[in-house]
Amino acid sequence: MAELGKGVTAGKLALNVQKRLNRAQEKVLQKLGKADETRDSAFEELVANFNKQMTEGSKVQRDLKAYLAAVKAMHDASRRLQDCLADMYEPDWFGKEELDAQVEEMIEKELDNNLEDTDTLWMDYHQNLTDKSLLGLDTYLAQFPEIKARLAKRDRKLVDFDSARHHFASLQKGKKKDEAKIAKAEEELGRAQRIFEELNVELQDELPVLWDSRVGVYVGTFQSLAGHQEKFHREMSKLSHNLNDIMTKLEEQQQLKKDATAAAKKGGSKSEEANHSQASSPAPKKPGPPPSRPPPRLSPSPDPKQQIAALLEDEAAAPDSDSDPTSTTQQSSVTNGADAELPPGFLYKVKAVHEYTATDNDELELKVGDAVLVLAFDNPEEQDDGWLLGVKEAHWFLKKDISAKGVFPENFTQKV
């Protein structure tokens, strides 16, 4: 007999065609109610669970792949944005003459490292999700097509079994009984029943196990997803914080440059104005460092911004120099403590126009705007040139405690 294809002869082809015709005929008879159909409700429930499980698993797989595609797209977008920032970040923004070149180099190095770490973090995140979540889900779903094919084969063998059963029954009920045909039909029925039951038993064992495995698969998939998400966002938060710090440094250095330029312009304007008004009023003096005290005290230098503020306040206080000398004399008189609102030895009050950080235990720390009650030294020989003794007004009126007194540089304050 001539072969029609590899392993397929005309006889096998005819046999397959005949089987299909018999199955189609059997299904028609069953639908018309002319032939009974073997039903197994327990197995049908297993099949329904299988179909549901396959649908849900396929949906999770599809959505997880879409999530990974979104992560990849976000990585690409983040990389392009970071590259754009790196291209825009130029050292001359800071001004090489005004700012420390080492600081600029450090900031640029931090930026490069931050961008590289961000790119690596995105790649690791995508790779970990692929390896630990998606591949496990793919392995789980890979077994469904083979089981689905065996379920379809089981359905065909069930129809063959029903068909053989009906054929055998019809021969037995016939008026003319052909023993040879009955024996052959019985043999075919036994073979069809054996094939069907083998498949049926195998699937009855495998489907419940497969159904129960879905919980472990989903737990592993989403635990892995959540763990890698948590790690990614934690590390990304650190990198984002670093990037924010870098941008803050850039903003601060740019602001310092603007402030220095503005101070230089303002100082030049004041110098020019002072030269024109020398005949009418003396030029204001810039406050210098506090007078030197005996060691180990140091002589701090006032902040440049505070110098500018002092210039303005000195100008505002200049007209007070023409006030009544009698009033000044009265303010300078030492009180003997009879006035309960003033500390013993009170001379006059001053206001801090510059911050001063104490460098010794007997010194008074000043902040701009602090009001200080100046006191007379118990022993005038202890007074150093350019230094005053006093107690903060707020502290005195709150606690009436003279022990909080201390010395401070006179040129950091202004008499009020």
Query: What is the fold named in CATH at topology level of the largest domain?
Result: Substrate Binding Domain Of Dnak, Chain:A, Domain 2
By DSSP (H or I, 4+ residues per run), the number of helices equals 8
- Percent range of helical residues: 55-70%
Globally, the shape reads rod-shaped
Biggest sheet strand order reads 6-5-4-3-7
State the end-to-end CA separation: 127 Å
Low-confidence stretches: 94-106, 279-286, 294-302, 315-338
- What portion of the residues fall into strands of 2 or more residues? 5-15%
Order of helices and strands: EEHHHHHHHEEEHEE
What is the class of the largest domain in the CATH system?
A: Mainly Alpha
CATH superfamily of the largest domain: Arfaptin homology (AH) domain/BAR domain
Count of discrete domains: 2
What is the CA-based Rg, rounded? 48 Å
Structural class: alpha+beta
Mean pLDDT: 76
Largest sheet: 5 strands, antiparallel
The name of the CATH architecture of the largest domain is: Up-down Bundle
Q: Total number of β-strand segments?
A: 7
